[in-house]
Design brief:
CATH architecture of the largest domain: Up-down Bundle
Strand order of the largest sheet: 2-1-4-5-6-7
Number of helices: 9
Order of helices and strands: EEEHEEEEEHHHHEHHEEHEHEEE
Structural class: alpha/beta
CATH topology of the largest domain: Glutathione S-transferase Yfyf (Class Pi), Chain A, domain 2
Helix content: 25-40%
Shape: globular
Radius of gyration: 22 Å
Length: 373
């Protein structure tokens, strides 16, 4: 699967942009701030209905415009389909396939899949647990499709409602016995949906670990594949096989603390994925080079997992080579060169390894110009 054409309307810095793409490697070269990352960000947004750069939609809409449109012609098995998302900050986004509107935007999820490498990837191993939860959930959406996205949305809705009730009880000075009776209803809903998410994350880690070890061995000098390990660390240690019941038990145990603080303390919103090299966590112990290698290995493992269950994802290498030494550049280029479509951004062409110098567009002053085939 690959993206054959990209159309942007009022997306980021582009009033209008039309770009023809091909399988293989395509690079976008331009100084920082010229708009090269905006192009690959649009394709990534179409993949998971979110940006790898910002958490909200508003920055994606060009200043002065009310909405943005990302449209892409995607080719799979010689069949072409046009996917479109209309981004409406503060309102519901609208999605279309071949100009026919979909009932819900999330039905686009999984139709085009991307794996993005960027300088921000270092936050996967050095940042707080939010980064790693987002990594796991975004990968699960691409791996399982709209079903997991729906489960995650349900959980966020239930969590928000439950937190509102806890805050209300806290303001009223309720004790554990005097808490709103409706809280128990939301406890049950939180546990039911939360158990699904926890189980999905645990399975994902189990699937990723062999691929992670293989990838880390490939990108880190002198490493062995058993060195790199991911561990799913839930917010509590289940004592029984039934995750849902275990979560309900833990919620009951921590009820006084939750009422005192007015916030939910149990559930997948407080999980973490622990990144380890040998016996030590990467965060706080690994060198900068080891941390980079681990982050790259996580993304390579994601790519291998997705391609094992469907079409090759579109690989996006966003300004990543400037952060790597010559040896790691060459290693990464070798590992991804067989992908069906690779999109690269770089400030200067010399940063791109020889093995990834395919078609090239120069990006400057809002213009995207094909200069090399």
């Amino acid at each position: 699967m690959y993206v054959a054409h990209l159309s942007l309307h009022d997306f980021r810095s582009y009033p209008v942009l039309e770009v023809d793409l091909e399988p293989g490697v395509t690079s976008f070269v331009g100084r920082n701030g010229e708009g090269k990352t905006n192009i690959v960000e649009a394709i990534d947004y179409l993949s998971r209905l979110g940006s790898h750069r910002v958490a909200a939609d508003l920055p994606l809409v060009r200043h002065g415009a009310t909405h943005a449109v990302v449209r892409a012609a995607v080719v799979r098995d010689d069949r072409r389909a046009v996917l479109e998302i209309e981004i409406n900050p503060g309102k519901s986004n609208r999605a279309r396939i071949n100009r026919a509107q979909l009932p819900r935007a999330k039905e686009l999820l999984g139709l085009v899949r991307t794996v993005v490498f960027s300088p921000d990837d270092l936050a996967l191993v050095k940042g707080d647990p939010t980064e790693r939860r987002r990594f796991a959930d975004d990968l699960l959406v691409l791996h399982q499709g709209a079903r997991y996205a729906g489960t995650r949305s349900d959980y966020e809705r239930v969590l928000k409602q439950r937190n509102t009730l806890l805050k209300t009880a806290r303001l009223r000075g309720s004790s554990g016995e005097g808490a709103p009776s409706t809280l128990e209803v939301w406890d049950a809903k939180l546990a039911a949906v939360g158990a699904e998410i926890m189980a999905a994350r645990a399975r994902l880690v189990e699937e990723l670990n062999p691929l992670l070890g293989k990838a880390y061995e490939a990108v880190a000098r002198g490493a062995a594949r058993e060195d790199a390990v991911l561990t799913h660390r839930p917010s509590f240690q289940p004592s029984v096989e039934d995750l849902e019941q275990a979560m309900l038990t833990e919620i009951a145990r921590r009820r006084p603390e939750e009422l005192d603080r007015g916030v939910s303390l149990v559930g997948p919103h407080r999980d973490d994925l622990v990144c380890s090299l040998g016996e030590f966590p990467v965060k706080g112990y690994a060198s900068h080079g080891e941390s980079w290698s681990f982050a790259l290995a996580m993304k390579l493992a994601s790519y291998d997992l997705l391609r094992s269950t469907g079409d090759d994802p579109v690989l996006i290498l966003d300004d990543v080579f400037a952060e790597l030494d010559t040896g790691r550049r060459a290693q990464l280029a070798e590992l991804v060169s067989g992908a069906e479509q690779v999109l690269v951004t770089a400030a200067v062409r010399e940063d791109i390894p020889q093995g990834l110098r395919g078609r090239r567009f120069d990006v400057a002053a809002g213009e995207v110009t094909l200069v090399d085939r």
